[in-house]
Amino acid sequence: MVGIMNPVSREKLASLSNSVKFATDLGPKLELCRQLKRDLLEEDAAALSEFLSHIFDLYSDPSGPVRKLATEIIGEIGVKHLEFVPEIAPFLITVLEDATPAVARQSISCSIDLFRHTLEKTAIQGLHSSELDSDLESSWSWMLKLKEKIYSIAFQPGSGGVKLVALKFVEAVILLYTPNPNGSSEPPPNEGTPIEFNISWLHGRHPFLNVGDLSIEASQRLVLLLDQLRFPTVKSLTTSVIVVLINSLSAIAKKRPAYYGRILPVLLSLDPPSFVIKEVHVYGANNALKNALLSCLQCSHPSAAPWRDRLLGALKDMEAGGLAEVALNQVHKVNGSVEDEKDHSSVIKEEKPMTKACDAAGSNVGRKRSGTEDSSGLAETGDVSGKRVRSTPSVSEESTKELNRNTSMSQGDISSAQSTTRKVDVDTGPVQQLVAMFGALVAQGEKAVGSLGILISSISADLLAEVVMANMRNLPPTHSHTDADDELLEDMCIVGSNTQAKYPPSFLVDVVSLSSTFPPIAALLNSQQSVPNEIVKTEVGEEVDVMAGPNSTVAYAGMAHEAENALLPGMEKIDVPTPSDIQDVGNLESGIPGLDSSFHYDGLSDAQAASSLVSTDLEDTSQEQGTSFGGKSPLHVLPSISIERSEELSPKAAVNDSSGVVSSTATSVVSSHPFVLPKMSAPVVNLSDDQKDDVQKLAYIRIIEAYKQIAVAGGSQVRSSLLAYLGVELPSELDLHKLLRDHILSDYINHEGHELTLRVLYRLFGEAEEESDFFSCTTAASAYETFLLAVAETLRDTFPPSDKSLSKLLGEAPCLPKSVLNLLECLCSPGISEKAEESQSGDRVTQGLSTVWSLILLRPPIRDVCLKIALQSAVHHLEEVRMKAIRLVANKLYPLPSISQQIEDFAREMLLSAVNIDAAEITDAEGLIIESHKDSELEKPSHEHQSVSSTGKDISAIFHQSETSQSGSSPSVPEAQRCMSLYFALCTKKHSLFGQIFIVYSSASKAVKQAIHRHIPILVRTMGLSSDLLEIISDPPTGSENLLMQVLQTLTEGTVPSAELIFTIKKLFDSKLKDVEILVPVLPFLPGDEVLLLFPYLVNLPLDKFQAALTRLLQGSSQSGPVLSPAEVLIAIHGIDPERDGIPLKKVTDACNACFEQRHIFTQQILAKVLNQLVEQIPLPLLFMRTVLQAIGAFPGLVGFIMEILSRLVSKQIWKYPKLWVGFLKCAFLTKPQSFSVLLQLPPPQLENALNRTAALKAPLVAHASQENIRTSLPRSVLAVLGLSPESQPSSQVQTSQAHTGDTNNSEKDAVAEISKESSGAS
Amino acid sequence: MKFRYAMVCSSNQNRSMEAHCLLKKQGFDVSSYGTGTHVKLPGPSLREPNVYEFGTPYKHMFDDLRRKDPELYKRNGILPMLKRNLSVKLAPQRWQDNAADGYFDIVFTFEEKVFDMVLEDLHNRDQVLLKSVLVINLEVKDNHEEAAVGARLALDLCEQIEAVESWEDSVDDILICFENKHRRKLLYSISFY
Questions:
Q1: Which of A206, A514, A566, B160 is the most buried (most CB within 10 A)?
Q2: Percent of chain A with pLDDT over 90
Q3: CB-closest option in B77, B143, B191 to A247
Q4: Which Pfam families did the record assign (chain B) (predicted)?
């Protein structure tokens, strides 16, 4: 609502400031302040003057930001209305003391603005009138006070952040107080023009501002600033203060070159390492210093010039040489554009191609320094030229200077070019040195041949390749070997001018061939022709120096031409106007007035005479060389490529060449012309980019083809480095990688594919890892990936699975990108991506897995990823794949302590996932697993997804089926096995894991249980009985009884269980698990009496289990024999009292039946023995008669024995046991007629009872008894019962017996039925 | 947040944007710039980079590259990077042209070359305000992974700086502490607006 009011009235402003005052929250308060500021600045001076105090009040606010803002507002008001300065300045002085540094800094910020404006106004007013109004005067005096105050802050030791700004303030004041040489020295015609204030406007005609005084003050302050950086004050400063000081001073030096001489000595004498206390930031101060010096170097003011050399030297010491040269070049560019545009343009053009050739030459000048010292060498040369200037203060000083500058400039170019190539090369430092070394050796001639050989053989193939490539790159395709030849001939002439006779032709040939492969060396030889005489001359005497200056220029110009030749193909500047260059050189030479030009030319002609003399001598040899070289060229693959192009390009080069030579060695060229001329007739063809690409490509193909042949010749070690280098270094559009790849893959073994691939990969990798810009990194990484992947795929597809190439390649490649890992994954888990590729053989899986294994061992960084691949494979749906992977994981990987936990976790999660019945849950769990094992890997989410969802679908389908059909073998068993196999395999390695299976078992689905049961026998047998297993057995989780049973069975199968196991099982039976079943497996190993005690429990088991137990008991163990005899078993069964033992009678009868079923064990004799014993028991066992009946049913031959038993039963008054009595009668009936005698032994009442019960017996018994011999032996009472007694009343008897007949008939039928049933059951 | 931050790399694509994105998420007042003359993105080969002018919207680059070769640019991470960038701001901005964006308190650079360029640019501006600006160089390799690491380091450092009343008084301590903690070398300078 405040913002709407416009224009602002005073009341509103007041209320606004009040609301600021009373606002409590910082945020709104600041917002109000800003609002206030906006409004205030629109006010006029009158309004403000009233209001100023309000704002001063704001400053009393406790919060720093508000005070800062208030200061800012006041500062801005001051700038806008300078008349308030007398009020504002004291305020700012107080603010300087503010406890909050930010506020104090704000005060300084405001002060400088205010100061500048006041000064400007004071100055300009003073210019226009000699009287200043008093307000302004007092303003100015206040500003001076303020300034002094800030000075004191700047120069008092260590006041932290405020000091930084105060120092900057000092810098600003110094700049204000000193004349700006670049600014206009006249004030702007009308006030208010936005032009930078310059103190030189004053011209000493100001009432009280005296330029001289101001200048003196500025100097004093500068001295103070400089003193801070001097030892030992500097030691007490913080790095930030040092940085600010350095920056400020360099800014002053740059803007006020007059102070160069005072500032630079201090900066140059700074040695950051020695003064920064907190050594970590030496680097920061160093960098600031470096930048400061660089910016000073760029200063083009004349007074800066004398410092350039020292600056360069210092920068070189700071290893910023390259930058320095660039900076210097820029300076020269500026100078050059004014002074000698033409010359410069030619030199600058050469910047790039001037590389090692010139470098080598340069170092030669500096008495063959090694590459790193090059720059200092150059600096020295620079120094020399500086001296020259001073030593010959002739009329022509200006022009000499100019020339010198040219010289040093081209030197600058050289090293800057060199530094650019350094940047491009991977590391050419040693390469440069080597090139120089080669050059030096070659230059020494024959005696160095041996050392050359040693040098070549002692450096690594890669390095040698780099050396060759370094040369290849720089000097260039235009140097066809024929050209080089010509040139070299000249070179040789001159080199040989002293010692020519000593060189046998063979050496010359060597050198020629060598230098055609090492163009820079050729150039070096070349340069020797001109450089040595220069050097000689410089050393001769001081007075020659003047002359040497131009001479060296000529030499460099010559080299420049060479470089231009190099430049031509590379830079595609075929149209460079060479003639003008030549002219240029001419100009240079002639443009040196006052020099001893005749002497100079004498020198040249000397050289010319010598060389022409020799060159004619050598003509014959050179022809020889030409031919012999031609013969050799096929071996030199590299030169031979260039022929193709050089035919188009070389003529131009040749022209330049010759002209370059003309300029440097005058007439000696004439003699060499005949060699060059024929080639000049070839037409110049400008190739389009495409054509160039084609040429390059063709060339490369030729190289590759050549390699196919040289494989036989040996030395491929060296050569393959070169091939790899070429393939990578040439522009990548040409798809040379593909050519190279095709070459490698066309015959991996014979082409040393592995080595070559690795070389290429390392090159690409190096490029990708190099600290270069983003896109080259990415491109190289992409090329790397493509290359490796293509090779890996081909290896996979073309080589037999047993081949180790793939594994070796992946093991040794610098890094493995994700796509390669995916390839590996597909190999290990076939079908993960392409379903069509089911036919992949198991051998491939083995190959993949063994690769993964070796990667896990060899490459710790990608161990997790590889492990994940192996684990994925270990839960693969194909059993064959899975088993292979599991073998790897469990046998090889699991024992590795670093990853065992990970494997265990994965296996456990898979196990748990199998247990979750719900299909959805399974999917979830799997997803989780995959995720948890994914970690950083984001690869192929689509595939991952696919596989998960497909398994999920499978599972749900399975689930449906198992729901509908309860049949045991539901199809999810394989699925369960898929998930669990790994865990089982781990169990065999670590038995304690087995417990988890017990826990899982209780909640597992039927299918899972089945799967578990399938595994257990193998698993437990493999594990054997360990303490871990015993522990698990001693306390099985509820619900796992079946599993426990199986485990125990497996444990006891075929072996004698240990006492521990038996003890554990018994203890378990006694304490926790009352199920006798668990004892069954160990029954044979228990003592007989214990078993007898257990017997009722056994009988109570389900029949099949009882039978199993029975078998075990009867078989016993191999050592101790049967625990119980069959007889004992039967007796034990009969000893069971259903009521007492709480066992259903049915169970007991079933147990009996089970015994009778095994007739081969429970034989006739055994039964007889058992019956004999049982019949003696009192009371008789409940089932006795039943057993007797069964015995008869099973063994009819026992009838006689049974009769004995029956008669013993009669004597035992069997009729007293009603249940047995029924059985007795049944038995008697069944065994008629043998039983008649027994029946007749019954007392008459019982006999009657018997006959009444079993009427069917009566007639045959009567018939039997009617026999004479029997009848006589029977007592009367019996006969009476039988109705054989004369005094009997048969009618009534018959009637009753008739009445009973129906019953007995029935019961007889029943009995028969029963027996037949039983016997049928037994049979 | 007390200070205004600028993240600067060469193309305002990878390192500076990674840091920009992260700091923005953490609520910092942050901008980002590049010091190069153009925005260069990797192309199919080294010789054919994709070159754009500063100010070309990220969306435009994204569409352009997606049209050219979606596979390549997805694989080398350029498309995802551009997608991230276009969610942060409209287009890459050039440091040297940012005078209108106001004054920063802290400038982060991720390469020494960029650091030097920023400093040079700052020195070439009229330093009239005497408002100090801290320029810190944290050397970060120009790839996606390192950029992410660098951004986290930058965030950590920003939080340290943000925690003090005025960095001018404690910059040395903060940086030394940071260097010891992360074993990274820092380079810093102080300039003025």
A1: A566
A2: 0
A3: B191
A4: Ssu72
